[in-house]
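Q: My collaborator sent me two sequences in one message, no labels, and asked for predicted structures for both. Can we handle them in order? The first one she listed is below.
A: Yes, handling them in the order given. First sequence, followed by its structure tokens:
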Amino acid sequence: MREVWRKQAITDVLNKYDIVEDKELEALLMEYAKVALRFELASEENYEQVGNSRIAGRPDLPSSIKWPCTADGEAYTFLAQINLSELPFLPSKHWPATGILYFFLGLDEPAYNIDHQVIYYNGDLTSLALAKLPEGIEEVNADEREFVCHKITWHPHLSLPDLGEDSDVLLEEHEDIYTEVCDVSDALAGELQTWAGETQLDAYLCRNGMGELLFNTYKTPERVEQEAAESLRDGRNQYAEHLAKEVLPLLRQYKEREEQHQQAAKNWQVLFSLSSLNEVNMCWWDAGYLEFLIDVEDLKEGRFNNTYLNLATS
């Protein structure tokens, strides 16, 4: 069903912009365009239904799952509850077809490796009940997160990854199509909206014990040695020790298998994206996007406890 929809959607978008004769563009879309499941805000949530998909507010949790708290003892902010059985079809064959995904947010700074939790529940939905914040526990940044809970509905949408020069040509020659298939947020799956950096590599490094290499993989070991020596001369002893004892050994190991690491990083894909939604009173920095990533191998096995969260902002 997913593939039938995808092919028809490509035909429809070409017809929509009256370029059905452009066989080169059609071939590009057929090869690279994927399917995302995009949500739309429906009415404000009244909590009359249990277990339905919603944004913000309060989740419906089973007794076996407590509202998660951060290491500092504050309650994570509830962002979304997604009932996978409500989807018209799955974004790919790797996704579970049933159950509920819960997304919780901690402090959203810095904009990388953000504290969060994703919880997957695939038990008896009749055991769900509307949860409350733990008694006596404050929510992270509660004063800045007075979100308005909404029910949501799901619709399939084409999503095209960054194809380098091909994307540049698409933007130049067919801006309307580019906007329609490349700027896809508020969705399950889809492509990154990140405008800078290497988010997939960042996710891979942070979840494989190499977080100290963030923003350092482009450097050579010799450069890091030089930076450590300069820091020591400047009296920044702690930073010099950090470079010499933590960054440098990891960087040497990384460089020995750099190609394999780069390839493994490509396994990280968007799980869920959430933009700044005015109706929800939700704004991430300067109208940015939250992007939850997951290793496709974890997705296949239904493991959602090793995800990564990035904030894409201008």
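Q: And the one she listed second?
A: Here it is, processed independently of the first:
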Amino acid sequence: MRDRFRINNRIRAREVRLIDENGTQVGIVSVREAVGLAEERGLDLVEVAPNAVPPVCRLLDYGKFRYEQSKKEREARKNQKQAELKQIRLMPKTDDHDLEVKANQARRFLLTGDKVKFNVRFRGREMAHPDIGRKMLEQIAEQLRDISVIEQKPLMEGRVLSLLLAPTAKVLKAAQLAQKAHSQPAKPAKSAAASVATPSDTPLDEDEELDDDELDDEEFDDDELDDEELDDEEFDDDELDDDELDDEKK
């Protein structure tokens, strides 16, 4: 890692805003005073924000600081998607169906963060009609405009007409996140015992069954009571009708 930070006597400013090794702001002090304080504590004075007014400096172990910075950069490069160049060959006689298949293939490449280069190769008398190849490339670029940008417009190189497409920033970021998630170790699956009901669930089930049984009993009792009351009312009505009939006969 290159020395991007000025340290100790390489700092050019006269005054700096000093932060000590514990992250506490000391205040604005002269560079000579800050360097002397760093030497007393066995640390280095590192300019971490040179564009600030005054520049911000910290007291820290510069060797350890460089190691941590380089480690972070390695991790960032490791998780970063390395774009590859995929080439797709076309001919002026390629029909519309095959052209659509090629476009779908290029879409898959672009969604994974790769660049795609279309090459239309002309042979013999086909060189007299480069407009056919140019029209094909423009059609493909239009189909893929939602996920790509034209990095190089159709360019004739000898007998080959080329078009270079690159994924958009949004697509490239999504591809990098997908690669990062794929590179992380998978979480262990839950054990089968976790899916089995806990003992605390059993009383709840029994209570639910008990409530259902009590509800059925109450409904049954209500039905019997209603039937008995109905029979009594019908019986009383029958007796009343017979008495009235006897009175009328008398």
